[in-house]
Design goal:
This protein is an all-alpha fold. The chain has helices at residues 3-26, 36-43, 50-65, 70-91, 96-112, 115-121. 73% of the residues lie in helices and 0% in strands.
Length: 128
Amino acid sequence: MSTKAQRITGWVLTGLVGLFMIGGSGIPKFFDFPQKDEMMARMGIPVSLLPALGVLEIAIALIYLIPRTSFLGAILMTGYLGGAVFTHLRVGDPWFFPIIIGLLAWLGLAFRNPTLFRLVLGSQELTK
């Protein structure tokens, strides 16, 4: 894959992850929707914490979307999504979706910055 194609792929993945974290998960935490109280009670999360979780999630996503801070954002997002995995495991819900989001976030970052491929895989072939 050419460097230009890698960067485009990286930005597409980054945009999709950012869009999901902000629009699909962060912003809805500020709105009331049917079964919100039941869902949060089942998860063991007080409804009063949702605005703080929404702010945290949106802030992490914005840090991830800014090129200069994207590595820090990916680390913070990994921690946040790790908490989501634990929460889902604890209540017996499917737990793999936050892992997929985290993998896509790191893959997007690695395509944007091929140095990460060399670092993780120890190979320079993927960056040529």
